[in-house]
Amino acid sequence: MAIREFFRRWGECRQLIRELKSYSDAELAELGIVRSACARIAFDASFGSPLLDYPATEWGEIQKLLDAALDKPAQAEPVRAKSTRSAL
């Protein structure tokens, strides 16, 4: 049954891609979509996006986990420049 569900969703995904690609650039812009994102949007709509399940407050924590997994240094807090004016 899982295979049947996968192919049902895959057919739905292909149908959504065809429909989105049939729209003009102006119609896609009204929807807030760029043409290069049509396949990703159709896939997420058909199969679901695991990233949509996380609230926005957890994105910082997710980014830290990804950086640790990719061995990237953590981003430093921005440093504000000190004023060069002397107090008279």
Structure, explained:
- This protein has 88 residues and is mainly alpha-helical.
- The protein has one domain (2-69).
- It is built from four helices and no strands.
- It has helices at residues 2-22, 25-31, 38-47, 59-69.
- Helix 1 (2-22) runs antiparallel to helix 3.
- The longest helix is centred in the first third of the chain and has 21 residues, at 2-22.
- It is flat.
- The protein starts with a helix and ends in a 19-residue tail after the last helix.
Write the layout of secondary structure elements.
Layout (H helix, E strand, L loop, with lengths): L1 H21 L2 H7 L6 H10 L11 H11 L19
The main sheet comes to:
none
Number of domains: 1
Count of DSSP H/I helices: 4
- Taking the alpha carbons of the first and last residues, their distance comes to 80 Å
> Outline, from the CA principal axes?
flat
Low-confidence stretches: none
The tally of beta strands, per DSSP, is 0
Give, in order, the helices and strands: HHHH
Overall pLDDT score: 76
Compute the gyration radius: what is it?
22 Å
